Amino acid sequence: MTVDSTAARKPRRGGSKRAGAKTAAAAGAPELVQLLTPEGERVEHPDYSIDLTAEELRGLYRDMVLTRRFDAEATTLQRQGELGLWASLLGQEAAQIGSGRATRPDDYVFPTYREHGVAWCRGVDPTNLLGMFRGVNNGGWDPNENNFHLYTIVIGSQALHATGYAMGITKDGADSAVIAYFGDGASSQGDVAEAFTFAAVYNAPVVFFCQNNQWAISEPTEKQTRVPLYQRAQGYGFPGVRVDGNDVLACLAVTKAALDRARTGQGPMLIEAFTYRMGAHTTSDDPTRYRRDEERELWEAKDPIARLRAYLEREGHADEAFFAALETESDELAKHVRDRVRTMPDPDDMAIFDNIYADGHALVDEERAQFAAYQASFAEESH
Amino acid sequence: MTAQKLSIVKAINASLRTALENDPKVLVMGEDVGKLGGVFRVTDGLQKDFGEDRVIDTPLAESGIVGTAIGLALRGYRPVVEIQFDGFVFPAYDQIVTQLAKMHARALGKIKLPVVIRIPYGGAIGAVEHHSESPETLFAHVAGLKVVSPSNASDAYWMLQQAIQSDDPVIYFEPKRRYHDKSELDTEAIPAPLHAARVARPGTDLTLAAYGPMVKTCLEAAAAAEEEGKSLEVLDLRSMSPVDFDAIQASVERTRRLVVVHEAPVFLGTGAEIAARITERCFYHLEAPVLRVGGYHAPYPPSRLEDEYLPGLDRVLDAVDRALAY
Ligand SMILES: Cc1ncc(C[n+]2csc(CCOP(=O)(O)OP(=O)(O)O)c2C)c(N)n1
């Protein structure tokens, strides 16, 4: 469903006293594209359909389980002092796996700092995601290897990079598409508004994928917008749609459709994946200061993994052996991650001066030499 | 509250509380400053006591935060804006540099822009990128802005009071790695002027000039040097725009040697300006060139390298040795 068919409706969130009852009101909202209910029942949608084999369904389930396990392991590693910080995606697995699996290898992905599930879909080694959080690098992978750009911490910036990249695709006459991720909080940034403008004006093949996990650290979505976020697209001249972000099938179907639109020259689209951040904003955050436990409990009942499992079991698409094997695979992944991180070497001191310029720079050379001489002076003293 | 020992975080919190109590036009604005009390808890409890109209959780848009603060100031308010981390001020940089700094002059001095922008800055907290930067030079370079940084609880409290009372825009840099250091705060005291440097430790052989987080490092260096029989004076500059060149000159005329220390890159930094001016003013007093210790012409490194990147005791003492060797 695009904005055109819903524009006349009254906003369901914000702008009224009912804003307080946001989660209940929004989750049942008819404009939410859903293909799998929280109980794990398949439902149809007039505009978005999907037909997957049992194997494909199991694949999505596997992706979500492994991503969650990786994420949990990273949180543990932070607690054990192996990482300085971690931004957990707990609860957002369906939004990320659904949208990530909708991309083609030649598409380009511009993530924020929480897209661990999308990175997984793109084939990025999950341990590469940890370097920045451990403090051994400021990026950690070659973006062109998997067409998965570096994590962007300054919120909203990447929406513009994605749009520019998409403009380049059009100039090249290629049929790839771009997907840019950002949060509901980031949607307030000027950069995001400017990205919408450019994308619309140049009909760029870019899909804006906003994971509305309802919180920007301590600020609820009401502090960013008084209308549902997906409706913003209309003002820029492209369609917006709200999808159940805890429904991996709906996220896959809607993102595939949006990317296909973009590929075929029909321009940008905004997808608002309505989901929930089950954990803290990052390991530095204390959500008990600003939100109630009951809210999380409400959303646990909509858990994206549990609902797909219920569906798989109901339809007989997966047996006990599958779930048991996946459990073993999860344990192995966690162990691999743990071992890799603990042995991840600290960078060499001289790395401070590496890769600052592609062409080199006299001042950097001078300071590098001074630094080396200074470090060496300690080595001499200790002889 | 009179004299007591407080952390810098608590001192800033107390200062904001005093300002909100004393002047109904004072507003606190920023991301997460309400219920959460800011990511560093600097604004803890303020929204509870002064309400959402005075302690305002803003949308996540720094340009919006500063831009609307300008409008509020034009309407007679005194907004105190929080930028969550140093690296996130840049979306607001346009508003600060092209608008906030210049409006007073453009309006023939007829309008005032009493906006305070609080920015936690500097490294050594083990953070990911954009959370450890020292962009003070970029602001000090812009005419129309005043730029200050406290190094202890008393200055944190008083300098913020003065910044809020100032009719000029003030960029107030908070040394985040020192947030939890405690020191004496007397809320009845008569504070020094906002832009006056302060002798933090008297000495005779050489002057270490620093501000914000590096003041403590320099005091530690001076204590270590004392054991080797060297007497170092530590000057807390407190203000990067304007700089109290008279105080630096007076100190250098006593000690005849100057080392300027800051975390920000040395190249075109505050230390460069001080070195140039003090060389002009004190050419015949100086026994050694003015030396600088600071950051490299490199992006702030990943946290596992920040100890190597940041000026520590050894780098300061190395510069002291070099200056004394002339
Ligand atoms: C320009 C900028 N300002 C502030 C921050 C600090 N910050 C990091 S994440 C965050 C909240 C982002 O919320 P949202 O966009 O909803 O994404 P989420 O983290 O919930 O996925 C804030 C304020 C930042 N990273 N960049």
TrEMBL record, chain A:
Residues 9-20 have a biased composition (Basic residues). The keyword Oxidoreductase applies. Its cofactor is thiamine diphosphate. The keyword Metal-binding does not apply. It comes from the Bacteria. Signal peptide: none annotated. Keywords: Oxidoreductase, Pyruvate, Thiamine pyrophosphate. This is Pyruvate dehydrogenase (Acetyl-transferring) E1 component subunit alpha. It comes from Streptomyces aureoversilis.
From TrEMBL, chain B:
Its cofactor is thiamine diphosphate. One of its GO terms (molecular function) is magnesium ion binding. CDD domains: TPP_PYR_E1-PDHc-beta_like. The keyword tRNA processing does not apply. SUPFAM superfamilies: Thiamin diphosphate-binding fold (THDP-binding), TK C-terminal domain-like. The keyword Ligase does not apply. Keywords: Oxidoreductase, Thiamine pyrophosphate. Pfam families: Transket_pyr (PF02779), Transketolase_C (PF02780). Residues 6-181 form the Transketolase-like pyrimidine-binding domain. PANTHER family: PYRUVATE DEHYDROGENASE E1 COMPONENT BETA SUBUNIT, PYRUVATE DEHYDROGENASE E1 COMPONENT SUBUNIT BETA. This is Alpha-ketoacid dehydrogenase subunit beta.
